[in-house]
From TrEMBL:
Protein name: RNA polymerase sigma24 factor
Similarity remark: Belongs to the sigma-70 factor family. ECF subfamily.
Molecular function terms, GO-annotated: DNA binding; sigma factor activity
GO biological process, one term: DNA-templated transcription initiation
Keywords from the named record: DNA-binding, Sigma factor, Transcription, Transcription regulation
All copies of domain RNA polymerase sigma-70 region, residue ranges: 118-166
Pfam family, one: Sigma70_r4
SUPFAM superfamilies xrefs: Sigma2 domain of RNA polymerase sigma factors (SSF88946), Sigma3 and sigma4 domains of RNA polymerase sigma factors (SSF88659)
KW Nucleus (keyword) present: no
Amino acid sequence: MATARRRAALEEEFVAFAAARSGQLYRSAYFLTGGDAHLSEDLVQETLGQMYAQWHRLHRPSWAGRIDNPAGYAQTVLVRAYLTHQRRRSSSERPSRALPEVAEQAPDSALRLTLVDALSQLPPRDRAVVVLRYWEDRSVEETAAMVKDSSAAVRTRCSRALAKLRVLLGAELAELVAR
């Protein structure tokens, strides 16, 4: 009986966590995927599924595999799920750019779409590093741990990715920001 109550309490706790974090996870996934809303939703679902499977690790007092920061752990799981997806051969398939209808754009949507398009042209690991460092505001060390790379490699990758973004965006970004 006590086990069933504990399991129910853990489930309620996880549902509250998922409701609170899914929006942030989706936004991060959206930028990681270069604006692919469907893939972003899939990555968030995969992340939450893995978090659910590991949720019991939150309450292990002295266990080496204990999760101390569930939000940070979820972000790490999301980035790793994204990088795993990019290694699959089928991840390079893209739908055509020609869409039958045009969506109405909000005032900053042109800037957002330009940035997402530029991010989508970066290699997956570069994109992950840029999103983690500048969108998620993670430190170099946190980013290195999440992408399983050294701090020096993250700094180099960041520098090169930003240089590529400057070339890709050029004067177009200044025009959009000035509006």
